[in-house]
Amino acid sequence: MSERLEWILEAYESFRRSSERRLIAGNIFDYFMQDFSGEISDAYDPATKEEIKEDIKEMADIIYNEEDKHKREFLVKILVNIVKML
Question: Which residue range forms the structural domain that includes residue 35?
């Protein structure tokens, strides 16, 4: 797993711990995603297209195997942002 994907998964866990049930409430998640999208762009700026494609494949596998609905939704939004970078 790339360092970028590890960082994304750690960011979700940090967000989940700090927001707990407020994640379901709505706006907190939207605000977090707005800021995090910029950080993702910065993290992927030096990545090659091949590295981005590999991360997309690996993220799709992670999403497919994820049972937690909220984490899956988070990762899908991240995946959409990564795909837009191609």
Answer: 3-84
**Separation CA 31–CA 26 (nearest Å):** 9
Mind listing the pLDDT tens digit for each residue in 19-65? Answer: 665 555 566 677 777 778 888 888 899 999 999 999 999 999 999 99
7-11, Cβ contacts within 8 angstroms, sequence gap of 24 or more: 7/43, 8/40, 8/59, 8/75, 8/78, 9/62, 11/36, 11/39
* The predicted structure's pLDDT at residue 36: 82
Overall number of domains in the chain: 1
- Written as six digits, the tokens of 47 are 């990545």
Pair of tokens at residue 60? 């799709």
CB contact set of 73 (below 8 Å; sequence gap of 6+): none
